[in-house]
Predict the 3D structure of the following.
Amino acid sequence: MRILLVSATKDEIDPIARQYGTDLRASKDRFFSIRQGTFILDILISGIGSAQTTFHLTNTVNKEKYDVVLNVGIAGSFAQKLTMGEIVNVKEEEFADFGTRSQGTFKNATESGFIGQMEFPFIANKITNKTPWGQGFPQLKQVRGITVETIIDNFQEIDARAKKYSPDIETMEGAAFFYVMSHQSIPYYQIRSISNIVGSNKMQWNIPLAKDNLCRFMLRFIDGLKRGITLK
């Protein structure tokens, strides 16, 4: 079995690599391959944002054959139902700030005519993960994500995004990951851990908790795959 773990930064998943004897921070590389018998864990550090993620992920999945690809990392939450450090499974994504702004009104890419209402893989600006592999982490809450190019702390703009998209979480790579993987015949998932409330002061963020919970969860999942336990 060969799986690919994709993360924007080394820091978010460094404990996973260390568990397998690899020090991500000791190298300038962005791709690492860990082999244990017939089990291969590849790690791709895509970089932050949609452009880097799209390029490096496409380049990687076109070189190797994977059984599953997972995008993992931390995320900001819009939803009061999500607690700090909670792990979630993202099932739907949108590019939230790709579009046009005129006279104070923002229109997303579909509304602006940049993307057709039913232009694959979009349906009305949304990309839904339709991976049929098992039921997709049934123990996790399924959430809606938006992907942005700019992190903001303006509550008026944050509220406008919340009202327009009704998202649960916000990242800077999720929709790009969904876009690339929807064109591949490979099962894929986006698993995120909540590190902050969108727009909150960074002093209120809890990245260590989010990172620790995420890496513990993914190590258990990877161990299950190594032992031949698939999702049910």
